[in-house]
Sequence to fold (257 residues):
Amino acid sequence: MNRRYRKTVIAGNWKMNMTASETKKFAEEMKKIMPRAKWCDTLICVPSCNIATAAKAFKDLRIAVGAENVYYEEKGAYTGEVSANMLKDLAVKYVICGHSERRQYFGETDQIVNKKVHAVLDAGMNPIICVGETLDQRETGITGDWIALQVKGALYGVSADKLRRCIIAYEPIWAIGTGKTATAEQAGEVCGNIRATIRSLYGARVARSVTIQYGGSMNPKNAAELLAQPDIDGGLIGGAALKPEQFVDIINAANQD
Fold:
């Protein structure tokens, strides 16, 4: 982390978990253990049907509410989709764009992710842009080139001013939901390469202001080591964000000097 230049952000991603009633219970448990003083920003991205409940339940916890997905059109005959303006009207602050599961299961391309990023930014919210490689891509040595391509595709047409509202989340696909985790050095190296890619596009001053998260099975045991890397500015947390005690442990790791 480097708090001098950028925010540390711990974000939960609940995926397709938690009902509205379970969201209320989670908030009640968090109220008992949430640290009063935080040096990091904290948010949880919840299923769209839980957003209104979460916004009310998390209000006193200083936990911002995020969405897990968005559609890039403003309105129209897109049954089942949710627009950026719909999310904004529910007080959503952050939106995940291009999560690996969206790419894998729903065929989202870099072009689609780029459209979603612009929709989120135009609505005044903050996109969390996910990039990452498969195990085959890592083993064949193309991790750097692949992720640079994803970053460039997602940020196409994004101005330097708007980029300051973006978060990049590095999520090695081979470490999501598998229990495997990149070493702190591996994760730090890729996050450093992401910053170098941004530097090549926008310059050093802008690049050092961008928050880059690690999103590959961060948990209470490895959070402090990962967050000690200079280019890792937070985490996009999956399973551990469903358990109040574990989520708070990661927040506390981010609050350490």
